[in-house]
Amino acid sequence: VQLVESGGGLVQPGGSLRLSCAASGFTFSSYAEGWLRQAPGKIVEWVSAINSGGSSTSYADSVKGRFTISRDNAKNTLYLQLNNLKTEDTATYYCVRDIAHWGQGTQVTVS
Description:
4-stranded antiparallel beta sheet; mainly beta; single chain
């Protein structure tokens, strides 16, 4: 199982980013996926999840209405669109299949 995130960067408040997670080594379309994040000095926070087919999504209250999770099962890729970013969104964002399978993370800095 391999999950590789990309798309992070430095952005001003109010800006947008699109994170991607390329999955390999398993049948991507059979699994729900999610995003977690960890800010410096803070515990890991669940951000969003999507079911295997992409028809059902859920979000943490802190990002609801600003972030959108999606997936392309043909491309084995998970996405997270981040809009109207706030300084408190600064964190390392991780693509997650389950508790045992995380990516290496991609840094998002809002400043």
